[in-house]
Amino acid sequence: MTQTDTAAPAFRKMSERFRGYLPVVVDVETGGFDWNRHALLEIAAIPIELDDAGELVPGEVACAHVVPAPGTEIDPKSLEVTGIILDHPFRLAKPEREALDHVFAAVRAAVKKHECQRAILVGHNAHFDLNFLNAAVARVAHKRNPFHPFSVFDTVTLAGVAYGQTVLARAVKAAGLEWNTEEAHSAIYDAERTAQVFCRIANAWPRAVGDDAPVPPPANP
């Protein structure tokens, strides 16, 4: 085997980039703004992957429409914004536990693939998505939630620093990406655009020592 064959990659693997966490973009559509009271209606999750050059890229989406959990409420104004038709014959919604199982299985597989410890949620206004996710986990007493319970990466903050924009549509355009208003406010579309913004900003950030530069010697004490 040649030296080239045995050489280490020119970039760090994912498990070494974010303190052992795998960034996973999540977007939820809901029946309102109160995660303790309003229903979870859609969820989409996109693990962040590495391409052959060590650049961050969006992975495959895992998603589910969700049957409103018993006891939760839905504000009709939220449905006007999202365009969700709860009794649409092609909605194919899953009960909350089944929906979480479906999405979590894909996230856990990605965490294992990249040899990470667990997932960390990436979102636009990320704690909104995390709070609804955690509320659903609590309702069904789910024991295999792959996400960190309170830490997040928020693209509102990242886009505010990088582009001076905090609204997702404006951040997407500032990043040089396409935005389709007709498709917005679906969990899949918003998660895809959020993932693109996250990757665009993170890839533009100066690489940490060890990605493509020699490690400097330790400073003298």
TrEMBL record:
Cofactor: binding comment: Binds two Mg(2+) per subunit. The active form of the enzyme binds two Mg(2+) ions in its active site. The first Mg(2+) forms only one salt bridge with the protein.
Location of the active site: H185 (proton donor/acceptor)
Species whose genome carries this gene: Luteimonas soli
Enzyme kind, highest EC tier: hydrolase
Name of protein: Ribonuclease T
Assembly and binders: Homodimer.
Function: Trims short 3' overhangs of a variety of RNA species, leaving a one or two nucleotide 3' overhang. Responsible for the end-turnover of tRNA: specifically removes the terminal AMP residue from uncharged tRNA (tRNA-C-C-A). Also appears to be involved in tRNA biosynthesis.
Binding, Mg(2+) 1: D27
Cofactor(s) required for function per UniProt: Mg(2+)
E.C. designation(s): 3.1.13.-
UniProt binding sites for Mg(2+) 2: D27, E29, H185, D190
A Pfam family assignment: RNase_T
